[in-house]
Amino acid sequence: HRMATGGLALLLVSMVSSVLLIADYLMNIWAASRLAASTRLIVRGGVVPLDPGLELVAYRIVQEALTNARRHAPGAAVDVELHYRPDGLLLRVRDNGPGPPPAGRAPGSGGHGLPGMHERAAMVGGRLTAGPAPIGGFLIEAVLPTTGTDP
User: Which residues contact 29 (CB under 8 A, 6 or more apart)?
Assistant: First the structure.
């Protein structure tokens, strides 16, 4: 059953754009955590279907970034921004929580969320940065190119 579900998920990913997948996640899964009222989805540029692998990477990065926001900044407002550009997708997830821990203090969970997001972005030829947002909180930004990702 697990294999069939994964195959169905990949099929669905190839049929719809990442904006629809992320909007569905925000409305159905994230809403169940009672944080949806403090979360906005901002879409810029002309929404176009992208390579299914790139769309899955975008979805997983947003999913992990929201999980991190819930874990490290509970109750903070979160913006999810998708900017469709001619050369790719710019993805930002920003919260207005306390930001990263002070220098010299270890982060709370010691998990694999940020390294995993970096790896996912690199898999499609992109890059990911994470750290304090310019006016407070935490910002995750991924640039996922649509050109030059073929082997």
Answer: none
